[in-house]
Amino acid sequence: MLGEISLLERLLLVGVALATAVTAVLEFTHADPLAIFLASIVSLAGVAWIVSFGTEVVGERMGAAATGFLQSTLGNLPELFIVIFALSAGELVVARFAILGSIFANALLVLGLVIVAGAWRAEDGIMRFNPRLPNDTATLLLLAVFIIVLLGASDQVGDRASEHVVTISAIGAVVLLIVYFTFLLGYLRGREQLEPFAPRVPLWFGITLLAVGGVAAAFVSEWFVDALAPSIDRLGISRAFTGLVIVAIAGNAVENVVGIILAAKGKSDLAISVVKNSVAQIAVFLFPVLVLISLLFAEPLTFVIGPVYIGALAIMAIAVWQVTGDGEAGMFEGWALIGLFVILATLTFFE
Fold first, then answer.
1. Distance of CA 54 to the CA centre of its chain
2. Which of 4, 48, 107, 175 has its CA at a distance of 20 to 30 angstroms from the CA of residue 136?
């Protein structure tokens, strides 16, 4: 019945189940928080892959555009739960940097790796793809960056508007969501659809994976946040570095694996679709949604961040548009994006 699942995929399914079970045992036996923390990181990456695989199975009936959207949306479940649990635990710094890290990791690290893989696959060393989606997502990203830069500048100078950052953030979140859904309707209705996948396994199997993956993401995220504070204190790393690098890389394992594999197979449009959809969704869907949800907590999340990261976001948005806006990218451009992420991660480590 499931004969179309490869041996590697079967092994990964078993491995993820074992990793999650080990994490659960450590949690319920009140083991060392550091052990729970490390096990949760592995489990988060595994759960992200489970969600990705389930999305691919379901998306095989929808075509490439819808599949890319669905995969990016559900692939962000770990980040969603981590931020919600972090906010409920009062870990505002981790929550904020987990979102920022997801944007930076997808737009710089993952996109860079995808371009490197795609350029390596191409005979002339140039990865080519339809420029429409990269340009649209660059516009969405610039809109999100505009709100962040505006509120950050207001907060730094301490003007009258800085006294109302929660209200302005909430209104900005609603605006971003409206614009995003307008984009989404046009994107999913567009004529530029790639050929649909040929279904490999039954639909019920994909739906089951999504359900199991979603539940597992919620539990593992809660265990991760519970073990966070004592673990990072022992490791000697900051909450900012934990959110920006560790959470971002673990939570974005889906885009790392799926995007690179698709690019290496020569499926450039779909590879770019998965990554760029994820960048746009985090910036103008996930971030605004979490800003609105956070109004229920004692410390609400806003779009206000420090000046260093405001500058990093602005440069990132310009770099992503410059690299992908013309519909082609060379390997060195992929390495340049990766280099930007490494430099940012290094700075954050010493913050």
1. 17
2. 48
The model's pTM: 0.82
- Is the pLDDT at 58 greater than 80, yes or no? no
Q: How confident is the model at residue 228 (pLDDT cuts 50, 70, 90)?
A: confident
Look at residue 263 and tell me whether its pLDDT is greater than 80. Answer: yes
Give per-residue pLDDT as tens, 83-137. Answer: 888 888 888 888 888 899 989 998 999 899 999 999 998 888 899 988 887 888 8
pLDDT at 268 over 90: no
Whether residue 350 contacts residue 167, with contact meaning beta carbons closer than 8 Å, is answered with no
Taking the C-alpha atoms of residue 221 and residue 227, their distance in angstroms, rounded to an integer, is 10
Secondary structure of the chain as H, E, C letters: CCCCCCHHHHHHHHHHHHHHHHHHHHHHCCCCHHHHHHHHHHHHHHHHHHHHHHHHHHHCCCCHHHHHHHHHHHHCHHHHHHHHHHHHCCCHHHHHHHHHHHHHHHHHHHHHHHHHHHHHHCCCCEEECCCHHHHHHHHHHHHHHHHHHHHHHHHHHCCHHHHHHHHHHHHHHHHHHHHHHHHHHHHHHCCCCCCCCCCCCCHHHHHHHHHHHHHHHHHHHHHHHHCHHHHHHHHCCCHHHHHHHHHHHHHCHHHHHHHHHHHHCCCHHHHHHHHHHHHHHHHHHHHHHHHHHHHHCCCCCCCCCCHHHHHHHHHHHHHHHHHHCCCEEEHHHHHHHHHHHHHHHHHHHCC
Q: Which residues contact 185 (CB under 8 A, 6 or more apart)?
A: none
| Max mean pLDDT range (26-30, 155-159, 242-246) | 26-30
How many other C-beta atoms can be found within 10 angstroms of the C-beta atom of residue 274? Answer: 28
Beta bridge pairs of residue 127: 329
The span from the CA of 296 to the CA of 55, in Å, is 30
Question: Please, which residues have CB within 8 angstroms of residue 2's CB and are 6 or more apart in sequence?
Answer: 201, 202, 205
Mean pLDDT of 217-244: 85
Task: Count CB neighbours of 164 within 10 A.
Answer: 13
